[in-house]
Amino acid sequence: MKLRGPASRQTSIAMGEYNGSEYIGIREAPTPSTNHGKKISVLPLIFLIFYEVSGGPFGVEDSVKAAGPLLALAGFLLFPLIWSIPEALITAEMGTMFPENGGYVVWVSSALGPFWGFQQGWMKWLSGVIDNALYPVLFLDYLKSGIPALGGGLPRVIAVLALTIVLTYMNYRGLTIVGWVAVLLGVFSILPFIVMGFISIPKLRPERWLASDLHNIDWNLYLNTLFWNLNYWDSISTLAGEVDNPKKTLPKALFYALILVVLGYFFPLLTGTGAIPLHRDLWTDGYFSDVAKILGGVWLRWWIQGAAAMSNMGMFVAEMSSDSFQLLGMAERGMLPEFFARRSRHGTPLVGILFSASGVLLLSWLSFQEIVAAENFLYCFGMILEFVAFIRLRIIAPEVPRPYKIPMGTIGVTLMCVPPTILICVVLALSSLKVMVVSLVAVMMGFVLHPCIVHCEKKRWLRFVVSSDLPVINQASREGETLIDG
User: Fold this and answer.
1) Are 200 and 294 in contact (CB under 8 A)?
2) Which of 45, 65, 408 minimizes the C-alpha distance to 235?
């Protein structure tokens, strides 16, 4: 596929000119050639994915409170089969087909057109920012048992603000730094649970794992907790343009990260529920630190709390990287004003980082459960668009090179998308009225924002460009005629 002119130039583009067209890549696109710094290798990418999705077992405690040990353990074994594996496979195929920072926005634009591509970008960015608002909350919830002053009031507000500023600055300094920091934080976050597992062996009672009360299950909390802890596999696609040889590196990193995430959830739950008597009401976010104190003493409790703090730092910087590079990728495709595409001297999207950090600060006052429910609702809408785009590209562009391709035909991948789609419908149906109304208002804002941005471009109130470093994404007319460049 042709590149748009010299590598150092950007071309102006009228967003309105795209109306009524679909974007379809016809020939293999080379990875964008501009080098904005050192690319991410496999190991840092694995831990970035780990932190995009998980970060460790912090936050899974509510699954035990909602449904008991048996369903909690079963959920973290079965849910990856229904949701995580299909999402990771789709991300591997689409991410290698479109190895650029727009990620899932480019996928949806290619299949469904720029309007729906913008909606995908809006919903997933907002969902990511809401998700990122969780991490200061979880960070302080784990520390408040040791530092009660962080439980509320002015100290908590100051702590949230300081944490956000420090981690935002880390994102500003460069994605390579973020990647290797994620590796170090990941090792530190996992180690205390390995130690706790060995300490718990003499105290394990297998019958405790079978405890369940089918008449006392909070399905909304249970499914939202599973869903939140096992989604966001697609977020790494918005960093594909920063990855070294993404066509090989991305699928490999997704595979190893999937194993790491599932084991990182299941074994700590196995330890915590099997080694101490069950008190379901106590199983809420932050409870693993109490489990550690019961099993190993105060020193292990402090280690778990420190690991939780480090984990939340890792999740924060990984999510902010994904959100900010998504905005940069959209701007490079002419879907957002040009100033979103500007990079700092460290190669990072300065404006995207500032926008994402502002959103985190605005939302950090919400409770853990409210944030999870709202984030899941918006994320569900975005995933439906991804599934539709993925299947449609399999149908209308079957010959487009896919460096990694799921070894199934169109019917097979369609059937693969059915269980997660049903799950999405269940999660949406179980949402509270408050969450549903707020989320739908947020969705409608996207419907208003897109024509407003198009109008601003037509009136030349804002400048829009398409990066010449990106491969041309061809257009197909409504009658189905494919226009091939090159």
Assistant:
1) no
2) 45
Torsion, Cα of 143, 146, 150, 155 (10° steps) = -120
Q: In degrees, to the nearest 5, what angle opens at C-alpha 356 toward C-alphas 33 and 184?
A: 70
> Rounded to whole angstroms, how far apart are CA atoms 191 and 372?
26
End-to-end CA distance of the chain: 6
Q: What gap in Å lies between CA 118 and CA 113, rounded to an integer?
A: 9
Question: Under DSSP, is residue 16 helix (H, G, I), strand (E, B) or coil?
Answer: helix
- The answer for 34, left when phi > 0, alpha when psi is -120 to 50, beta otherwise, is beta
Q: Tell me: the pLDDT tens digits for 282-309?
A: 998 778 989 999 999 999 998 998 888 8
Q: What span, in angstroms and rounded, lies between the C-alpha atoms of 23 and 17? A: 12
Q: Which residues of 23-33 are buried (b: 16+ CB within 10 A; e: fewer)?
A: bbbbbebebbe
Show Cβ contacts of residue 13 under 8 Å, excluding neighbours closer than 6 positions.
334, 464, 465, 466
* Angle between helix 287-296 and helix 298-332 axes, rounded to 10 deg: 150
Beta bridge partners of 41: none
Which residues are bridge partners to 343 per DSSP?
A: 349
Residue 317 scores a pLDDT above 80 = yes
- Give the predicted TM-score (pTM) of the model: 0.81
SS3 of residue 427 by DSSP: helix
> Which amino acid type is present at position 333?
R
Residue 115 CA neighbour count, 13 Å, CB half: 10
d(CA 341, CA 117): 17
What is the distance between the alpha carbons of residues 117 and 307, in angstroms, rounded to a whole number? 38
Query: Among all chains, which residue has been given the structure tokens 């040990």?
Result: 69
Contact by Cβ (8 Å): 467, 332 = yes
Contact 113, 100 (CB under 8 A): no
Confidence (pLDDT) at 167: 81
Say yes or no to pLDDT of 9 above 70: no
Please provide residue 349's backbone torsions phi and psi, each rounded to the nearest 5 degrees: -80, 90
Q: List, for residues 215-247, the tens digit of each pLDDT value.
A: 889 988 898 889 888 988 998 998 888 888 888
